[in-house]
Amino acid sequence: MQNQLINYLQLIRHISAEDAQIISSHFEHKVFKEGDYLFKGNGRVCRELFFLCKGVLRIVSVNDKGIELTHYFYKENQLSTILQSFNDEAPTSAAIQASCDAEVLAISKSRLLELYKQLPYMKEVIDQQNQLRLIEKINIRNTYLGEDAENQYKLFIMQNPDIALRVPLKDIASYLGITPQSLSRIRKNIS
User: Fold this and answer.
1) Whether 74 contacts 80, CB under 8 Å
2) Looking at the 3D structure of the chain, how many domains does it have?
């Protein structure tokens, strides 16, 4: 698992063997079953950053009507956190949940700050990846604007075929802002 993280970071910049050991020593391997929460919001502050080694995670919140809303899916080789909460130490209602069995490497904010002191370039690397993910979220959401539910689903399976095969349909429905029943009808119509 540690090698997967180092290989990911090597795509961004050269990491020496010595630095790789330092980085690896700061992360902790964790395993989650489908439906487990890596972080439950409910007004708490997110204090961990996750590197997803295996599985799919989702950022989820519950609206004032008690309906779950999936904001984003993360897949392998991506960093995941509730960014504003993590960076600003702000309470959040959003949560991070495993949409299927998942394995992550986790680092607490305090350990990450220690890592930044030891390897200052890591702050730029992590910030850059978080910024790219944020831009990706915006671009993905913009592609859905003005599309009806059927076209949104078609776009989703075209852009995320691997996620579509691994997560519960209810998670996809909540991401698209439709009911699971509506998604079933859409899937039936396009089959």
Assistant:
1) yes
2) 1
Is residue 136, in this structure, part of any structural domain at all? Answer: no
The answer to the question of residue 13 being in a domain is: yes
Whole-model pTM: value is 0.92
Q: How far apart are CA 2 and CA 25, in angstroms?
A: 9
Residue-wise pLDDT tens digits, 19-47? 999 999 999 999 999 999 999 999 999 99
Packed helices 149-159 and 180-190: angle between N→C axes, nearest 10 degrees: 80
- Asked if residue 188 is part of any domain, the answer here is no
For residue 32, give its domain range: 1-119
Q: Rounded to 5 degrees, what angle do the CA atoms 61, 68, 145 make?
A: 85
Return the HEC string of 53-98: EECCEEEEEECCCCCEEEEEEECCCCEECCHHHHHHCCEECCEEEE
Residue type at 84?
Answer: Q
pLDDT tens sequence across 104-162:
999 999 999 999 999 999 999 999 998 988 898 888 888 888 899 999 999 999 999 99
Q: Which CB contacts under 8 angstroms, 24+ apart, belong to 42-45?
A: 42/93, 42/95, 43/91, 43/92, 43/93, 44/91, 44/92, 45/85, 45/86, 45/89, 45/90, 45/91, 45/92
Spatial CA neighbour of 77 closest among 165, 175, 10, 139: 10
Cα–Cα distance between 134 and 130 in angstroms, integer? 6
